[in-house]
Each structure stands twice: as C-alpha cells, then as structure tokens.
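[stage:ingest] chain + small molecule (pantoate)
[stage:ingest] validated
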Amino acid sequence: MKIIKTINEIREQVSSAKSSGMRVGFVPTMGALHAGHLSLIQAAQKACDFVVVSIFVNPTQFGAGEDLDKYPRNLELDAAKCEALGVDVIFAPQVSEMYPDGFDSWVEVGGEITKVLCGRSRPGHFRGVTTVCAKLFNIVLPDAAFFGQKDAQQLAVIRKMVRDLNMPLSIEACPIVREESGLAMSSRNDYLSDIQRVDAAIIYKSLLASEELFLSGERRSSVLRSKIASMISSVDYAKIDYIEIVDPDTLMPVEIVENKALVAVAIEFGPARLIDNIILSLNNA
Ligand code: PAF
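[stage:predict] done
[stage:export] tokens:
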C-alpha cells in the first residue's frame, strides 16, 4: 500500500488504475480511523476494484475555538489499519498541498440545508467540507465516494453539491457503526473519560425511545423531541445543542411525521460535541 502526499502522484496512480479498467472507490477521512471508517472502506472494496482513502485534517471546516489543534492525528496507526484491510492507496497531503499560498476559491452549497442543524452552531463548517470534498473529488476522480450516515447533514449537503454541480461520481451512504453501548463511533469519542463514555450511551437510547414512541403511533415531533430531551437531561452535564426532526433530504423541519423523518441530535457531552441520528420510518415497524 502506498502513502502518497502529492496531488500529481495520486493522479498518476488513479489514472493508471483507471486505464486498466478498474472502478475507483474513494473514502475521504480526517484520520483517527475507527470501525466506522473501516466499514466505509469495506463497502468501497465491495463495490470497486481500487480504493483510495484520504487522510487530511481539513483546517477550513473548523471554526475559531474548535478542536483543530487537538484533533487526533496518527498516520502510522491509520496506515496500519488501512494496510490490514488491503486499501490500495492512502492520500495524505500536507495543508500546503491542498491550500497553497494564494488559495481563495470556495465551494458553498446555498439555501437552508447548510444553515440548519450543525450549520447554526458551526457557521462556515459546511463551506469547508464542500470545498475540500470538491477538491478531493477533482484530484482523485473517483467513480464513487463513501460517506457515513452518522454525519447525516454532511451527506445531504455533499449529495446536493454533487447534484447541483453535475460532479461525475456516485455518493454512497453507509450505516452508522456503534460501540457495544450503542454510542455512535466517532474520532471525538476519544475526548471522553471512561465515565462520560458510559453516560453517552444515553444519546442512542433516547433516539431508540423516540422510535419506539413513533412506532406505537405518536406522530407529533414536539412529543418525540421532548422524550429525547428528558432522557438526555438525566445526565446533568450534557448540554443539548439541538434535537431536530427533519426531512432526510432537505433537512427542513417536520412537525408531524407521516412516513419517514430524520431525528438528528447534537449534544455537548463534556469535552466532546457528539452528533447522532436515526431514521424514523413506518418500514421499520
Ligand atoms: O467526515 C469527515 O471526516 C470530513 O468532514 C471529510 C468528509 C473527510 C471532509 O474533511
């Protein structure tokens, strides 16, 4: 497995894979790889012949005062995990390779989709995500890119960017991978103490409780949201950023859940801001 740092070299590698007829799969990451990332890699390997994983802590998606500096970085460990899975190439550029002096072009998805949910408390975050993903898609030129459903808003925003800008790749969503307690896998779980990690299982439990209410006939979002809020508030230091019930594609609020809706939460859990979600659907009944 090669670890490539330059745009020219990754382009050469992908172009030679494509010229031998291979379908190229791409898994963009910021490293600190956990089982969630590994499931994306495995999905890419199932669907494609040549898999590129990018490892790049993208500074433009972090706001002032966020965790850019302390975000976990361990290329050696990440590379060992990728190698064990049989990844073909890691693309791990320096910041100066992606954002050289004079860089001043941005890709921004407009409308409400980037302003609601995490967009409200993280202004500029999605502009950083869409800019780096557009750049990575242009560099790697994959046939398909694989994203986790845990970042449901990121997924919806990327899908919209790809659709609006006619980018020639498919975006594949992969299910959330959870720890045994139900806590959604995230690189930021490493910020939690052992006790906080145990307490944080309440997030998924509260989402499941809202699903149970929904499946027993409750359709009012206000009631479903209150159930989640009261369970999360049982942990006295957990601060609710948002609990929203929205259309899974547009992310616009849904007051009465007819068939399908996304329940998305963001909780400040001690040192970590944790997000999670669940899809309410009558088909889950
Ligand atoms: O989900 C992430 O890890 C990042 O937002 C991504 C898609 C790699 C862009 O930096």
